[in-house]
Amino acid sequence: MVEGVGRAERTEPNGPRGHRRTRPAERKRAALRAGVALALAGSGLAACGGGGTPTLNWYINPDNGGQVKLAEACSKASGGEYRIKTSLMPDDATQQREQLVRRLAAKDDGLDLMSLDPVFVAEAANAGFLRAFPAGQAAQFTQGVFPAAVQSSTWDGKLYAAPFWANTQLLWYRKSVVKKAGVDPNAPDFTWDKMIDAALRTGSTVGVQANKYEGYMVWINALVASAGGRIVSEAGKGDDAKIEIDSPAGRAAATVVHRLATSRAASPTLSTDIEEQARALFNGARGGFMVNWPYIWAADASDAKAGVIGRTVPSDIGWARYPKIAPGQDSKPPFGGIEVAIGAYGKYKGTFAVDAVTCITSTEHQKEYMLGEGNPAARPAVYDDPEIQKQFPMAGLIRDSINAAVPRPITPYYTDVSGAIQSRWHPPASVNPNSTPRESAKFVHQVLRDQRLL
């Protein structure tokens, strides 16, 4: 996933009711899955059952031990009915997806629970890899939960994952730089242009994530959405999806990327910067502004205490909502996080797995996880807690930003869409507002129709 270092796509989707169409792309993917399944089955990687207390295997993304603690707490809370064992996945979201897809394609009955990046839920659900929550069970996972988190956990009208923690990006700024520039990042007319202008006047920088990876797609999607557009609509239709990035909104987004990338306000290593490089730039001598996830607040406090960065850096940090594209048009911050899903082939996918997910994603445990890991809760009520507000003085802004956030395209073909966009928008300095949106729209369409390869 892309929310901080160490933290943190079967048949064509339903068209008219009752109809399914098989396309060349789907036949290719089906053949690939079949090959993977046979290979894994032949190598004996499918889990074997055992006696004693039922053990639920939970595949988790890397963090600082928070999910392990929750597994222990929920095992204890079950009163001996089951225990939860965690298995750590790779740091990289793409590698996490590959590991899970291989096991799920092999119908691994030892994959009970999994922590999923929201963009992969639709793919896994459409392939039949996840257990859907019936309406009677789904309510407990959707009531009092951020709309974007519910939307990202839902496919074809069914809930396939329980929102665990949500995420968004804020605009972080150095108070000293803002004072010198004479700007107010919280002003209603503060835009990307004004921010770049302020950085240029003060000889400071604007940190973003622009390596050729998912974090760059996060930035592009947020810019397009903030300009009032979408990259893709009717995304579930596969190669019949409407590619909408070649639009005024797409060109406005490309204008921001081009202007920053070709200015002195850009990082010297912009085209390879991920979250931590942006944070290092922000904490350095020329640091001025940065868009990044809330984990940086706790990370900077820890680094200052350890002497890794100057001890006065945290007190010089301010925060505001994600920058606007144009005055009078509210920004649409990025959305991220983690959902907990139940594997379709697990031995305990019934009561035990549902009970475990209920425990893991409870309001109490979301609060505990936010306090321990710095990752925002998926339930707005958590942000009213005094302990949360004390540790996160920007808790209200995080809550409001997640409420206003726009997910990346929800589609079983997300990996293709994201890869195609990245390939045409990278490196950032090559982005041309007049041609890049058009070229990327054409390429996404070709990739979805198997006319071009990534």
Task: Write up what this structure looks like.
- By secondary structure, the chain is an alpha/beta fold.
- The chain has 2 domains: 24-167 and 336-404, Periplasmic binding protein-like II (D-Maltodextrin-Binding Protein, domain 2), CATH 3.40.190; 170-333 and 409-448, Periplasmic binding protein-like II (D-Maltodextrin-Binding Protein, domain 2, 3-Layer(aba) Sandwich).
- It has 18 helices and 13 strands.
- It has helices at 24-43, 66-77, 93-105, 121-126, 135-142, 147-152, 175-181, 192-202, 214-226, 248-261, 275-283, 295-306, 351-360, 363-373, 386-391, 395-404, 414-425, 436-448, and strands at residues 55-60, 83-88, 113-116, 154-155, 158-159, 162-167, 170-174, 205-207, 232-233, 242-243, 287-292, 317-320, 336-342.
- The strands form 4 sheets. Strands 2-1-3-13-6 form a 5-stranded mixed sheet. A 4-stranded mixed sheet has the order 8-11-7-12, sandwiched between helices. A two-stranded antiparallel sheet has the order 4-5.
- A hairpin with a 2-residue loop joins strand 4 and strand 5 (158-159).
- Helix 9 crosses helix 10 (248-261) and helix 17 runs antiparallel to helix 18.
- The two termini are 20 Å apart.
- The model is unreliable at 1-50 (pLDDT under 50).
What secondary-structure arrangement, pairings included, does this model have?
Elements: H1 24-43, E1 55-60, H2 66-77, E2 83-88, H3 93-105, E3 113-116, H4 121-126, H5 135-142, H6 147-152, E4 154-155, E5 158-159, E6 162-167, E7 170-174, H7 175-181, H8 192-202, E8 205-207, H9 214-226, E9 232-233, E10 242-243, H10 248-261, H11 275-283, E11 287-292, H12 295-306, E12 317-320, E13 336-342, H13 351-360, H14 363-373, H15 386-391, H16 395-404, H17 414-425, H18 436-448
Parallel strand pairs: 1-2, 1-3, 8-11
Antiparallel strand pairs: 3-13, 4-5, 6-13, 7-11, 7-12, 9-10
